[in-house]
C-alpha cells in the first residue's frame, strides 16, 4: 500500500470536488469507491465531507460557492501541486506567463492555498502543507493516481511549470505529430501535459485508482452517473475510463 506523509514540491498531492449537492455526491462516490465520510462545518454554516479509503483520508467533497451555485456550474474536480512556499509560487506565476487566480490564503493551520493558471488556461491548485499534507494514499484504490493538463498551449504550459517548480520533462512523440509531456520530480513522472482537442478549453484530467475498472464503471452507471469513456472489454492494469457524476463532475479511473 502506497501510504504518503510527504509530497515534494511540484508533485500532485491532493484533489477535491466542488459540487452543488454534497450529499448526492457522497452517495455516488461511495458506490464507486466504497468511501466513508466525516462531515465537518464550513464557515458559512454548510458542511463538507472528508472522504476516507479505509482509515486514510483521500479527498474532500465540498459545496460550491454562491456564485457557482447561482450560475448552475457543473461539479468540478480540482488538482493541487505541493509547494514549499505558496506565496513565492503565486508571485512568480505572472512572471512565468501565467496568472494568479486566488490567494495565497492560509486555511487555519492546515496549510496555505492558492490557484494559478498556466498559459493557455487550466486552474491549478497550489498547496503548502501545514497539518494537512495531502492524500494519505497515492496510486491505490480510491485514491489520487495521476493528473494531466489538457491545453491548447502545451509547450508554454511545460515551460511555465518548469520555471515555477523546476520540473524535468520527458517528451513522448505521438502519431499525430504532437507530443505527450511528463513533468518529473526526483526522476519520477508525476503529471502529464497533453495538447487539447481543437476547440476544447484547457483543464486538468484527474485520475483515481480502482481495483476493478469494470465494476467501478458499472457502479457509476447504477448510481446515476455516465461513463464518458468506456473501459477496455477486458481491462488490464493501467486501463482507463472516464465517468461523470450526476452533478457534472468528471473524473477518470485507472485500474491499479
Description of the molecule:
- Helices cover 20% and strands 43% of the residues.
- It is α+β, with helices and mostly antiparallel strands.
- An 8-stranded mixed beta sheet has the order 2-3-4-1-5-8-7-6, covered by helices on one side.
- A hairpin with a 5-residue loop joins strand 2 (36-41) and strand 3 (47-53).
- The longest helix has 12 residues, at 22-33.
Keywords:
256 residues; alpha+beta; eight-stranded mixed beta sheet
Biggest sheet: strands, sense, closure? 8 strands, mixed
Distance between the termini: 11 Å
> Structural class from helices and strands?
alpha+beta
How much of the polypeptide forms β-strand, as a percent range? 35-45%
Rg measurement, Å: 17 Å
Topology order in helix (H) and strand (E) letters: EHEEEHEHEEEEHEEEEHEEE
Major β-sheet strand ordering: 2-3-4-1-5-8-7-6
Low-confidence stretches: none
The counted number of beta strands is: 16
Helix content: 10-25%
Overall geometry: globular
Could you provide a short overview of the structure?
The chain has 256 residues and is α+β, with helices and mostly antiparallel strands. The protein has helices at residues 22-33, 66-71, 86-95, 154-165, 213-222, and strands at 12-19, 36-41, 47-53, 56-63, 76-82, 99-107, 111-117, 123-129, 144-151, 168-173, 179-185, 188-195, 203-210, 226-229, 240-244, 250-255.
